[in-house]
Amino acid sequence: MEPEELLNENRGEQPKPVVDSPLVSLRRDLKMFSEPIREVAVEIMVEGLSKYPIFVAHQHELKLGELILDRTELGTQWSIHASTMEEFLEVGVIKPELKQRFIETYKNPKDFMCVFVVVPEGANFVFVPYE
Fold first, then answer.
1. pTM of the model
2. DSSP secondary structure letter of residue 58
3. Cα(69)–Cα(33) distance, rounded to whole angstroms?
């Protein structure tokens, strides 16, 4: 930030627009689709596919998991894929030596969605409470 901006001395220049973090739109999209995501998590567990469902949130093309919410179809900012810890181990996103640490960190899937957020700067796991 420039000192003039702090003092509100922009000398007739237009103020710079505030750019929202992409995580603001992710929070909005996850809140809107909280219930359908929870239903998919329960289905993954009930069908015995995994005790550890993971949802992949991204804004680009991605081949990981199965597409459940397409941003182009829904007019949202983020697409969501459903996956599992087992798939993440298989493709090497989670290294085998870190499997136990992941399991210990994993929160109750009935209360929290495990989201692997992929942005141009990198990717990380976050646990978001269901609405």
1. 0.81
2. E
3. 9
Residues above pLDDT 70, as percent of the chain? 83
Strands 53-58 and 66-69: unpaired
| Assigned token pair, 50 | 């995994």
Structure tokens of 74? Answer: 């829904």
In terms of DSSP H, where are the helices of 1-131?
3-6, 22-32, 34-46, 71-74, 85-91, 99-105
Q: What is the pLDDT of residues 72-121, one digit of tens each?
A: 899 888 999 999 999 999 999 999 999 999 999 999 999 999 999 998 88
Two tokens, residue 65: 């998991």
What is the spatial distance between Cα 24 and Cα 104, in angstroms, rounded to a whole number?
28
Q: Which residue, 5, 22, 1, is CA-closest to 126?
A: 22
- Provide the CB-side half-sphere exposure for 45 (13 A, CA): 14
Q: What does the block give as tokens for 3?
A: 């000192």
Which residue has 């469902």 as its token pair? 53
Q: Which amino acid is at 18?
A: V
Pairwise CA distance, residues 42 & 107, whole Å: 14
CA distance 39 to 33: 10
DSSP state of 34: H
